[in-house]
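Document type: protein sequence-to-structure record

Subject area: structural biology

Format: plain text, a pair of labelled lines:
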Amino acid sequence: MSTIRLTMAQAVARFLVAQKTEIDGEILPLFAGVWAIFGHGNVAGMGEALHGVREQLPTYRAHNEQGMAHAAIAFAKASRRRRMMACTTSIGPGATNMVTAAAVAHVNRLPVLLLPGDVFANRRPDPVLQQIEGFSDGTVSANDCFKPVSRYFDRIARPEQIIPALQRAMSVLTDPAECGPVTLALCQDAQAEAYDYPESFFAEKIWTPRRIRPDADELAQAAELIRNAKKPFIIAGGGVLYSGAEKVLADFAAKHGLAVGETQAGKSSLAHDNPTCLGSIGVTGTGAANALAEEADVVIAVGTRLQDFTTGSWALFKNPNRRIVGLNVQTFDATKHNAQALVADAKVGLEELSAALQSWKAPEAWTTKARDEKACWFAASARYTDATNAELPSDAQVVGAVQRTSSPTDVVVCAAGGLPGELHKHWKASTALGYHMEYGYSCMGYEIAGGLGVKMADPSREVIVMVGDGSYLMMNSELATSVMLGHKLIVVLLDNRGYGCINRLQRATGSESFNNLLQHTNHVTLPNIDFAAHAASLGAQSMKVKSIAELEDALKKARGTDRSTVIVIDTDPLISTDAGGHWWDVAVPEVSTREQVNTARKNYETALAAQRVGD
């Protein structure tokens, strides 16, 4: 057996270079690069190793470990999980800064390889700088925090351990059902230790997506259930896009006369003007999609994990006889809520389900209802997004301005606050992957870093990041990274002077405004933040606009700039779209001295009665 003597870190770098993927007939590196912030726990080992392969595996330097991991995750999502990135940090805060990002990837089923440095395996210098010591467990380090938010976790204490660890990592990162974050904690002394690795370990490997075909019995049972349906309805989740199944979905819906509602992850599976597309579903859903979902007797859930925003906290589906067909690669998701499981890839699953249904179509009256509801919703949406001369525009009006100045190939990126609801309801996606929302973990601070990852995945598309002042203040450093790397973003920053979304939720549950909007916080002096000046200080172009008309002009100018551009506009924190949508289960205090809370509790108890528990 031929061997090559390398350090463990060098073996990691060389192994990553050897992993390839095939997309549309082109062989590409599976790992598009490594994000790195170096420290004493990885600079000597991984730093030297990455320098040696820098031509084949680019290393990107970020400004925040959580931010760089968000960029890596967004890159994987925008690449339909066909390509991915790795992230390396030192031990201590560098490592734990990535834990939140690992949770984002875990919830959203997205691949990212996390390579945090770890303590000395030999323990001779213990405790080292930044080491977390377990008083009752000598094997614990800060990296144990990754265990609950990793699909696979390993600690590499000897150089030869990296061989099975990387092989297991790849099986998880490329598996459509297991896919998620992998953490390999690299003990810093082991990174520098050498071993005679078999050359076969570094042989080129081409990874192609595994397309799981449905079981014959499950397929027959699902088809029979649908054939007997009078009011069937499709929910399209992120699995549709990961599978590349959007055309198959469009054909399936058209052939069988079915309407489609989209989750946050599934939005842009169908073009907004596709007759079968009713837009968003659930708590932030359109009136059209929710109207059909309420009556549906069979819900065909394709590639969705059916979280509470999709199901209206399991109160949306009001038909007492409704059944769910769970078409999903992951059995865990396919069997939720007593669903008829159809464990399969979305693309081949829909193809085989369509063949099994043959010429069956939903009743014409049901299809007509879908068409009528869509027309009503489009008219309602226009009223909320139209331009206005109001002193402080709403989020929906800002969304409308961005939409009017956008191109069909643009990608809009967002993550948290009130904007996801407004975008889910109102944004008209024209092309697949044109809507990029991180709403599985709804992580504030994802927006700009995520936008950078999206731009790196497809530099040909204009990437528009929409972010509130709260999220911007939490994490903005990767704006400087975007300038440094020459990946231009258009950032629309909506300043409502606080956490407007949670303030509205606070008021809706009977509480007084408290500690969300800046004016309601404990303060001596209210901050007056010049966001445009701050963005300029990070190297971006920036401007502050005072109206929707000025915003539209600024957006047009931004499309012609040569670097990331931030446009700031003040917005009203109290206004949101009250059309469409659905109840969301947010527990209201059972006892209070305030009458508003007691009234909200009574309304809450009434709403609870609509939940479907145990099915």
